């Protein structure tokens, strides 16, 4: 159910489009960028409203909210409170530029751009200290290298947040418009009070990125192999493939290490990225190592199901010494080039750890 209401805030009325009913998940407030309105969130808001209330807001000077003619970052902050940030970095001084008004009728008061832009070009000195006081768990969805927002400024912002998390989706600045399904899948589905401190990456297999794998001597090949895994889970299960730095998922890395030890295998290369997911009653964990090796653990949760460990070598790397006893089969991949793979069956009881808070919910 969708309904629009107006909330009086001092001198202005703020128009809000509400979707959904109260459920197990916390409510969300969605704010558009300058020049956009609540309608810009339509597809995403519909997807998010299944088990919670979603509020999409027209900022002052936009859409059906009041157009008072007086605008500033501080006034907008007093009108609403931002809970999820999309491709927003820590403000830095920059060369001022006068915005040019587009032709035609606008859905917002052009004076917003004229009055707020100088505050963005020359941000107040208190911004870093103000960010550091935000205690609410904060998710920052970064748009990747093609966005006009400097991505290192997003890193700076997250580092200041007491409980911040960044997810990178290579989709330019307006992530929710370009890749709405991936945007929705990254949003926290945690109960109220859960913590978010984690940095994750939604793996894009249409525009391969090396995020998190830059230290590997075969960066591009390893990124292609990771993208290949992402495409498999998207095509077969409709599941978004997410990785986090290995240091932020020690329980998953320990489980994979335990399974490798069953064959007296110790990987000498550092682990860079880890993925953990559950689909159709099967847990999958992936570890991507600096050397170009990728290890995946498959564990059917029901007794008697398949349980195995897969070993994959990125294009161009030699077989690691610790894997010399295995026979590898070659496979040609559009994304990963020529990869080699092997596996072994796991026997005995070695159950996986609980899904981490950063992992996506199980898919049935």
How is this fold's topology laid out?
Blueprint: E1 2-9, E2 12-19, E3 28-30, H1 42-48, E4 54-57, H2 73-79, E5 84-86, H3 111-121, H4 127-131, E6 138-142, H5 151-160, E7 164-168, H6 175-178, H7 180-186, E8 198-202, H8 219-237, E9 242-245, H9 250-261, E10 271-279, E11 282-289, E12 293-300, E13 307-313, E14 329-333, E15 337-345
Parallel strand pairs: 3-4, 5-6, 6-7, 7-8
Antiparallel strand pairs: 1-2, 2-4, 8-9, 9-10, 10-11, 11-12, 12-13, 13-15, 14-15
Write out the CATH superfamily name of the largest domain.
Alpha/Beta hydrolase fold, catalytic domain
What shape does the CA trace take?
Answer: elongated
Tell me the Rg in angstroms.
Answer: 23 Å
Q: Sketch the topology as an H/E string, one letter per element.
A: EEEHEHEHHEHEHHEHEHEEEEEE
Low-confidence stretches: 190-197
Query: How much helicity do the residues have?
Result: 10-25%
User: In which order are the strands of the major sheet placed?
Assistant: 5-6-7-8-9-10-11-12-13-15-14
Which strand-content bin applies to the residues? Answer: 25-35%
What is the overall pLDDT average?
84
- CATH topology of the largest domain: the name is Rossmann fold
CATH top level label of the largest domain: Alpha Beta
* Spatial separation of the terminal alpha carbons: 26 Å
Main pleated-sheet profile: 11 strands, mixed
Structural class: alpha+beta
Count of discrete domains = 2
Find the count of extended strands (DSSP E, 2+ residues): 15
Gross CATH architecture of the largest domain = 3-Layer(aba) Sandwich
């Amino acid at each position: 159910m969708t309904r629009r209401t107006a909330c009086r805030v001092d001198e202005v009325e703020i128009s809000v489009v509400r979707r959904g009913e109260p459920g197990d998940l916390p409510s969300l407030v969605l704010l558009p960028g300058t020049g956009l309105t609540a309608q810009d969130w339509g597809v995403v808001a519909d997807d998010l409203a299944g088990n919670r209330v979603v509020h999409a807001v027209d900022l002052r000077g936009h859409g059906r909210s009041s157009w008072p003619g007086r605008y500033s970052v501080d006034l907008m902050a007093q009108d609403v409170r931002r809970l999820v940030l999309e491709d927003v970095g820590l403000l830095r001084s920059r060369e001022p530029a006068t915005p040019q008004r587009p032709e035609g009728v606008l859905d917002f008061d052009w004076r917003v751009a004229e009055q707020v832009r100088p505050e963005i070009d020359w941000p107040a000195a208190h911004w870093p200290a103000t960010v550091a006081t935000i205690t609410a768990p904060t998710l920052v969805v970064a748009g990747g290298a093609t966005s006009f927002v400097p991505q290192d400024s997003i890193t700076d912002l997250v580092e200041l947040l007491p409980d911040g998390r960044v997810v990178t989706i290579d989709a330019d600045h307006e992530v929710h418009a370009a890749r709405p399904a991936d945007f929705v899948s990254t949003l926290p589905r945690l109960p109220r009070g859960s913590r978010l401190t984690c940095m994750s990456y939604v793996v894009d297999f249409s525009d391969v990125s090396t995020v998190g794998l830059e230290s590997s001597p075969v960066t591009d090949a390893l990124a292609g192999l990771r993208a290949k895994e992402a495409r498999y889970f998207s095509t077969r299960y409709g599941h978004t493939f997410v990785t986090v730095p290995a240091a932020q998922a020690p329980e998953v890395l320990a489980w994979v290490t335990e399974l490798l030890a069953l064959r007296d295998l110790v990987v000498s290369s550092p682990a860079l990225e880890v993925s953990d997911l559950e689909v159709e009653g099967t847990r999958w964990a992936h570890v991507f190592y600096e050397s170009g090796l990728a290890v995946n653990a498959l564990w059917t949760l029901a007794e008697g199901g398949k349980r195995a460990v897969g070993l994959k070598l990125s294009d161009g790397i030699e077989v690691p010494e610790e894997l010399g006893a295995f026979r590898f089969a070659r496979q040609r991949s559009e994304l990963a080039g020529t990869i080699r793979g092997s596996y072994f069956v796991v026997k005995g009881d070695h159950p996986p750890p609980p899904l981490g808070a950063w992992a996506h919910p199980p898919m049935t």
